[in-house]
Amino acid sequence: MSFIAASIVGFLSGILASMGLGGGFVLVVYFAIFTDFMQKGAQGINLLFFIPITVIAVVIHIKNKLIDIKTALICSAFGILAVVAGFYLAQNIENEWLRKGFAVFIIISGLKDLFGKKSDDKKDVPDKKDGQ
To answer: In this predicted model, what pLDDT tens digit does every residue of 3-19 receive, in sequence order?
Structure first.
């Protein structure tokens, strides 16, 4: 793929990721299908891609007072442990099994989104009565 195509995919992945809409999925699929990267390399690049996006998002959310710092630090600590464990696990899995596992994960996620229970976003909105 050309530099232009890779730039467009990276840009779109960044936008989708910053909105929480699956930018990582787009990036991994691009690398796995349109380049000669192995699954491990595609997922590794995807993880590196999200470091600056995550830092920017956290800074903006802290500025807007949308993050409880104590909870974020606890979650981050366990997240770092999970990343280390996942890294060692991925090193011992054949590339083909990793591809299949990723495909199953994407299918299950899609089915959950399609058929899962929808939350009622209007629960926390107070009722407006008498023109208030």
So the answer is: 888 888 888 887 887 67
